[in-house]
Amino acid sequence: MEVLLAIGGTIAGEIAKNLVAPIWRPFYYLIYYKHNIENLKEELQKLDDKRTEVGLRVNNAKSNLQVVVDSVIRWQEKADGIDRRSREFIQNEMNVNKCLNRYSLSRKAKKMTENMLALLEEARNFGEIAYPDPCQKIELWFSDERIKNFKSRESILHDILMALKNDDLRVIGICGMSGIGKTTMVKQLMKNMETKKLFDEFAMVAVSDTPDFRKIQDEIASCLGLELKNDESEVVRASKLHQRLTNCDKRILLILDDVWKEDGLGEIGVPLGCRSNGCKIVLTSRNEFVCSSLGSQRNFLMKVLNDEEALVLFKETADDSIGHDLLDTVKEIVNECEGLPIAIVTLSKALKNKNKHIWNDVLRHLKNSKLEDISGMKAKVFSAIELSYNYLEDEEAQSCFLLCSLFPEDFNILVEDLLEFGMGLRLFKGVEYVHEGRDRIYKLIDMLKGSNLLLEGDDIWNESVKMHDLVRDVAISLASTNKQWHTLQSQARINEWQGKDWYKNCTAISLLCEDIKKLKDHLKCPNLELLQLWHDCQNDCQLQSLPINVLEGMKGLKVLSIASRIPSLPQSIDVLKNLQTLCLWNDRLNEMHTIGDLVKLEILEVRSYRLEELPAEIGNLKNLRLLNLRRVENLRYIPPDVLVGLSKLEELYLPLRYMMKWEWKEDEEKTNASLSELGTHHITALHITVVNAYISPKASVFRNLIRFHIFVGKSKVHIVHKDSENVLHLKGDASDIKGSGICVLLRKVEVLYLEEVKNLKKIVNEIEDNSFADLKRDECVDALVRIPESPKSPLSCLSNLRKVEIYECDELKYFIPLSMARELRQLHSMTVMSCEKMEGIFYRNKVNDEIESPLTTLCLNNLPNFIGFIYKDIEESSASEINNRMEIVQSKTEPVEKISIFFSSLWLRLSKLQKLTLRNCGLVKALFHPSVTQQFLQLKELNISACCKMEYIVAEAKEEEKNKGISKIAFPNLTKLDLGDLPELVAFFADNDISFELYSLVCLDIWSCPKLKTHYCETPDSSTLNKSYDQSELKLMFPTSSIAQRLLRRGKPKDVSKKKDMEMEQPSTSQMKSGPMEMISTLFFPPSSPLLNLRELHIFGCDFQEAAFPLSVAQQLEQLKDLTISSCEKMEYIVAKDKGRSKIVLFPSLTDLDLSHLPNLMGFCKDNNVSLEWSLLERLWFYEIVPSKIVSVPKSSTLSTNDEVDHLDTTFCATLIPRRRKKQDNNFSKK
């Protein structure tokens, strides 16, 4: 009962409360009106104070580039709103009738006060109101308007972006010489990354040559919003930073700029070896080895700007301070900078608003290699390069670098010359033999290249290096200061040098002078060890001899190099008793009998085309270790027993042109030298040419060879190879070759040439005998080698091959079995020419897994029976394999004809192939099967010609393959495509249902492809779409994407003629073009392959109707510079008309226009809304264009050209009226 009473009391109390409260509330607001108003004013003041405090904190955070948290921003917005409304309320409260509104005013004041109290409570709970914003910090780095994205930088920037998108790459390196633009590149990279939202957070720090690792930690942490305390230990700080970079859901890009050494970065927490995909690291360094040692998985080398970009950068930095009278000087100064951005910017700033005398003086200093005397150059350019030199920390590398400065400007410095000089100066410690010195010089050059102090040379025959001009200027200064090595390249410098007696302390002198006669007759240089005399070819001074006693005061010389036109040795050369190296680079040298007096000579190199006989006195050089006569091209005679006297000879280089008449009968009296004289020497390098194998030395001479060029027989082909490669050229009867002992070199050969070798099977047996014994002698399938019985027996002689060239070996059907292809681990280049029976490169025997090939270059020429890259006998193939690889066409009147797809197999991957040339491979119908195109992502150059059966470059995919998901084919790196003399070629790609991409194409040549036609018309109306057409009418109809497109791309031309009643399908709006069909991007290439980067387009002998391409395609070609169209008889316009277009500009980058043999050409463009703004045009060539007015375009069109067109030729253009815009009445006239 008591419980019931308690419950009833509670219920009654709640009911009374709910009933009384609403009745009491109005009285409350009326009674406490004044209290609520005063309370509102007090809380408003508190809120105002808090708003001010929070606002100051927010402004301070923004001033420190911090991001204010969203809750604080929302609080400010609410507080501002309440403050505004409260003040309006208080102001209005004073003007209203309080008696009538006392209740409502009190109630509003109470509510506002409660809201203020809530905001004040929220503010009291604020923690940190802001956090660091790394993105805002990055934005400030891009305020420099001179940071440009030049064309030469676009490709490397694109490659870096692709590498960062690759999940398998976590660390990449950007390398390049000092001032090349590495930092600018990574800034641009980060800006792109931020725009594309590929990363969530960014951090970039400069490491420098003297890194403060604690500061680097703090900068990275600051960018990422990580707090590292100063009192924390190094281990704790490193651990926190490592965890922040790796154990985070965000994608982080960390850029470490200007890295000099590999030590220290891992210890401070940078995750260089971590496999986390969340953090990616970009390194920039002058030294490629540093990037590699820090775990870089791919390095990108930055090169100098091209001439055009360098000039643009210079002019933009100098603003408007370059007058017309300075233009030639500007170009010379820019040329001296050789595209180095830091030098260009430094000079342009220094010369800004200066008069022409200062410009001329700066140019003079640049030409005389005096960077120190130019304002700003010493601090920014000289010191930066000097720092790279000092950082080598290897005395031999520094000496090698300074040695390169003794060669002329922009000179290809041969590695062999550096070896010869270095050996003569005894620069290499612990080196006894010449081949050991060669290993050392290559190591040093590799080190200098890695530090970007040396560049790769461009000598196609010899391994060479070059120096950037500004790097060379610094090296010249350092060499004169540190080693007393002087390079004098003007007569004024020579006079200055001699006048102050500087030469007395010199240890090396290199003279590049106009007239060596002006040297003092008797120079006392007791410390001189190296003298290099250069003839100035530009002035062509006819120096007949050196001053008679010029060498008298240089008795300590160890290295003498004379590059002049002196016909004989200097008269005083016999005083050089300590001479170690003598280099005579003299195209007129014909007498050198005094050479025998140089008894300590170890290295002798002669270059002369007049020397026909080697003097017998050379036999007195008992200490000679290297004799280089490679460039004595007319050498015909070496006296007998001269080679025998050179008892210490290690390396012999004779001219490879066949001129020598070697003795070969040992039992007869000798009149010429015999190669058997070398039998007692320890020869490690040999370059010789012999007419027949049977007169070559015995096997004992070859066994010790480390490097060699052995040519047997006179070659008909032009052979290009590096001097560092081991080359073996065989021609003639294999029986003689087998018996000569040359075959022992098959284990070491890197470049193998086979030319017209008869009885090839005997060479096969010799290869087998020298490689392995377990061979099936009955399985030779007319290949170079047979198939091993055991897969554990490698073909060792193939493992060193880098280059193979085979010419006119008519017995050869295949190179080797496919199973042996894995042994070709270093094969980068292969050429096969004029082998009549050859059907394939590899013969497919049993292969269980895919093989990766290192081939980068493949050239096949004149192989009329060639079927495919990998061939298998038809009898051994299944029906499905035959269908997949080749088509067998058989008729009653014709024999069986094998027509193949060149690349149809997945067994051998050619993922590194960059250049492919195919000529006169008669049985090839298509080049690629769609399923294998993914292998050729690195292909850059494709040349196909004279393949009479070829119809498509890429064959059509089969239905089952389409069902497997082949939807797109791309050659992303293809820059050059040359297709010519292909009478059956219909289109690049046979399949209409697969998209296609050629975004990097720069140069396109099409010639003599008569079945590759354009077919287009104005967009037809619906009344014409249901008509039937035969082949002769196809050229007038069919819009883009209609049935004709598929017929012309997929079907053979003869298939079209069979369609008597062909219905036209109505295309959709998205498929229709408001003009003619697109020849390049729709017919020859599918619509998905725009040619945005095309720079050269050459079209010859193609049966185009009316125009080469439509306006819509022409608009894409904004980068086109060179346009050549010739021998297209039916062509009426270059660019067709297109409806519904506003006024447009065509080919704005065009510099060369060549139109010839176009008898029906009526104009350049049929459309009136076209402007030809050719401000860059340099060359016009019109040849046999009879009825047209080419440049006189329609009235509403305009043609603007360069003020100075370099060349205009209108030969045989009887009615051509070329016109140009009027400017000072300077009009073109006919030639």
TrEMBL record:
Q: Which residues form a coiled coil?
A: 30-57
Q: Name one Pfam family in it.
A: LRR_RPS2
Q: Which domain of life is it from?
A: Eukaryota
Instruction: Give the compositionally biased regions (Basic and acidic residues).
Output: 1053-1063
Q: Which GO terms describe its molecular function?
A: ADP binding; ATP binding
Q: Name one GO biological process term.
A: defense response
Residue ranges for the region (Disordered) are 1052-1073
What keywords appear on the UniProt entry?
ATP-binding, Coiled coil, Leucine-rich repeat, Nucleotide-binding, Plant defense, Repeat
- Domain named AAA+ ATPase is located at 168-328
UniProt family annotation: Belongs to the disease resistance NB-LRR family.
Task: Write down the PANTHER family for this protein, in alphabetical order.
Answer: NB-ARC DOMAIN DISEASE RESISTANCE PROTEIN (PTHR33463:SF183), NB-ARC DOMAIN-CONTAINING PROTEIN-RELATED (PTHR33463)
Designated name of the protein: AAA+ ATPase domain-containing protein
Q: Which organism is it from?
A: Manihot esculenta
